[in-house]
Predict the 3D structure of the following.
Amino acid sequence: MPGHLPTVTAATAQWLTRSFPASGGPLSAALCEIQARQAVAVAARLRHPTAMDAELVGLAGPGGSARLDEITGAEGLGSEPWRTWVDEVVASWAACLLSDAALAARAVKALGPGHGEYRRLVSPDPRDTKAAALLRHPDLSTPVADLHRESLLARLGHESRPAA
């Protein structure tokens, strides 16, 4: 992963797991974190596909979690420095991928060969699903996912779907 993307990926995955925590004990927390990291890694690679894109994130900064915190009702709950490295678009795209397995599979396919294994993202087993119940719940993640869903669909070559 080029440039500053590991920092963005770690911060954005941490934001997701704090905003939509695992249900259960330490094993559930680990499984939830793995799924968040996989979704964020795919989203970050789609959002910042070249080394130049990744370097620009380092220069300009990813934007931080302020708007995401406001949407989820977490504003003012933390001022940790890692929050400045959260990428709102990547978090939104990751939320889309976590709540739609078919879209996640398409996103992983769009990365092309040689981009690693994303089984827990694309085809989670029942234990994965239970551990990340809040993280994967479409009703809970929709406010975050809807922020940038259209740009993800455009990136993947989808036409927008009308609201049901």
Observations:
- The radius of gyration is 15 Å.
- The chain has one domain: 5-149.
- The chain has ten helices and no strands.
- The chain has a mean pLDDT of 90.
